[in-house]
Amino acid sequence: MRPHAQPLLLLVLGTAVLRISLFSDVCLRYVKESAQPFLIATGFLLAALGLVGVARDVVPRVRKRVAGKGAEELAPSGAGGPAPRAGAPQDVPGHEGDGEGGTHGEEHGHDHSRGPRVAWLLLPPALLLLLLAPPALGSYTASRDQPQLVQDYGRFDPLPAAGRPVPLSLTELVARLQQDGSGSLKGRTLVVQGFVTPVRDPAGDKAGTWRLTRLLVSCCAADSQSLSVTVHGAQAPPADAWVRVTGTWRPGGTFGTTSASLALDAASVTRVPDPANPYLDKAPAL
């Protein structure tokens, strides 16, 4: 990589990071919300280093080239060119500036001022983030992931009064089904939200059920784990569509234990906009 290209690459990288972290929330497709300030700081640092490099390396090169062209236009034309002034150093083989002896940076067979060519591999992802940011993980990842076991709840918050819908995060729904021995959700109208993961049988045909899924992360999308419940009684929306499901627990197994069925009988399914933070599992607002 040529020296003048290095600061330009840093500037592109910094701009791409700022584009997804400062000027939008696209970075939340890839990392937790707590990491966003660090991405913003990194973007500013990369962009600042790139600007300093441009001011130090690129601008002087451009000015020198423009000045050289101007001098060539003003110099008298002649077959032999302008005569060297007295006392001017001449090119000596093996000295700096000679075409055969090479510069000091090339006396070992390579130019130490150039960066490694592998640095160009940073350019495609930077341009991708600038022009077309990849989407968040979805049903493709969830269908190939092992379901996550939720942590033990020491206590559960009181539910709304009987007869009112119960909005729950998918995490709390699974925890109550597997850990709440009082059976508090039996017969209650539940409201949960997530994205659609199709269910296919071994033959590859769609089965009569589908899954409502959330992906949870500890740090970034690379460590994501899925959490899902099976939905019965409603036609499957398109894969990866975000929906709100209103329904009741579908009895199966023993409530309050890990054998309890993670399934709902849907009364209604409503499409909702994709959330800004797809990995933040919280109860839907009613």
UniProtKB/TrEMBL annotation:
Pfam families: DUF1980_C. Residues 93-114 have a biased composition (Basic and acidic residues). InterPro entries: DUF1980, DUF1980_C. The chain crosses the membrane at residues 39-59, 118-137. Signal peptide: none annotated. The keyword rRNA-binding does not apply. The keyword Transmembrane helix applies. Residues 69-114 are annotated as: Disordered. Residues 184-279 form the DUF1980 domain. Keywords: Membrane, Transmembrane, Transmembrane helix. This is TIGR03943 family putative permease subunit. It comes from Streptomyces cremeus.
